Amino acid sequence: MSEHEQVISMVRAKNTAPIELNPRRTALIIVDMQRYLTQPSHPFTEVFEKLSSGSTKGYLKRVGEIIIPNIHKLLVAFRDRRSDPEQAFRRKLRNNGS
Q: What is the predicted pLDDT for the residue at 95?
């Protein structure tokens, strides 16, 4: 079995068993969910489409159907357990964006 096949096997095994989380010691951190990475009409997405037509279709489908709904499920679960999710916001500190 190749190294790649071993990794795939481990990932599949991990995905078959639920992960147990201790609510007192577990934090949910949502980092940098920006509209420009999730909407087809945003100029950022339009640039990629101009560079390579169709390049964002699968990405945007996955974001809309899998990533955002799963983030929402996690938020609901954490709030139901009275755990406040942490949301990290990147702020532009200088003109160069750093």
A: 52
